[in-house]
Amino acid sequence: MRCNKKTRRFLVCTIVLYPLCALLAAGCCEAPKKNTTTKLNREVIMKMNAIFNKALESSGSDYLQYEQQLLDGEEPETSQMLSQRLGDPDPMARLTAQAFLDGKGQWTRYHREASEYLQYLPGRLMRSPAPNLPPLALARSLDSDFKDHVANFLAVKLVKDVKEERTEVSPKWLKQGVILYLQQQKMPSTTAGLVRFAEETDDPQLRDSAIDAIRSIPDPELPGKIEAERKRAQAQGKVLPPALNALRNTAPK
After folding, report:
1. Measured CA angle at 176 (ends 102, 238), to 5 deg
2. CA angle 68, 203, 156 (to 5 degrees)
3. What pLDDT is recorded for position 208?
4. Distance between CA 147 and CA 181 in Å, rounded?
5. Residues 6+ away with beta carbon under 8 Å from 110
6. Contact, 179 vs 158, CB < 8 A?
7. Smaller CB count within 10 Å for the chain: N or C?
């Protein structure tokens, strides 16, 4: 059967335009789903950001629950929130964000193992003939088991003074061992935790050890970190320890 020109023109338009209309219709139907997902992601990011702020403000067993929630946070929302916090004006907040970003992906297992190791080690040793571990031995053990993969994470935990179930505070030898481990890794990012620890600890020996570790780590951002800590201490009616304050004018090695 022959088709006249009008019929042929109609068939061509139908063949060309029908698939295009179908695609446009499908796109219109899918748009609301995309908007719903974006809204859900935003809500999760806000939730994880609130947990992050609570982690910054807490310590001891309170901190541990927020640490666990950040390690278990929904992805990719948690990582997106943490990436945003890398630009925080507070050096300790930047370190904490980097610490949990380090714990994502293939290194998640290391962070969990390091956390459990330090949390329960003092209690286990208290029930053994040797109630403590030499700090240098602890530092070497951490380096052997985890390399530098948990350095930022342990710099945060040093500040948080994570408590073991049967002790009121982490023992001195454990803190000393973590400081030596951080000193061995020489990661500039960890100085924010060492600066905060040196400002907050009441133990002169631990403070001196932290300051020695800071001196040995080449960090071009150190003066700014110490200045931020000075302002924070001033707002609380405190002053920086003289040895720590003096590092503001020390050129990085």
Report:
1. 85
2. 25
3. 97
4. 9
5. 103, 146, 149, 150
6. yes
7. N
SS3 for 164-206, per residue? CCCCCCCCHHHHHHHHHHHHHHCCHHHHHHHHHHHHHCCCHHH
Structure token pair of residue 32 = 């609301």
Task: For residue 149, name the pLDDT band (cuts at 50, 70, 90).
Answer: very high
d(CA 164, CA 10) in angstroms, rounded, equals 80
Side-chain-side CA neighbours of residue 38 (13 Å):
6
**What span, in angstroms and rounded, lies between the C-alpha atoms of 175 and 181?**
10
Structure tokens at 117: 């190791």
Name which of 27, 83, 31, 11 is nearest 52 in CA terms: 83
Tell me which residue of 143, 153, 168 sits closest to 116, measured CA to CA. 153
* Average pLDDT over all residues of the chain: 84
Q: 131: Cβ–Cβ under 8 A, 6 or more apart, which residues?
A: 125
Tell me how far apart the alpha carbons of residues 234 and 217 are, in angstroms, rounded to a whole number.
26
Tens digits of per-residue pLDDT, 38-81?
556 999 999 999 999 999 999 988 998 999 999 899 999 999 99
How far apart are alpha carbons 23 and 197 in whole angstroms?
60
d(CA 207, CA 201): 6
CA distance 69 to 59: 15
* Cα–Cα distance, 137 to 135 (Å, whole number): 5
pLDDT of 161 reads: 80
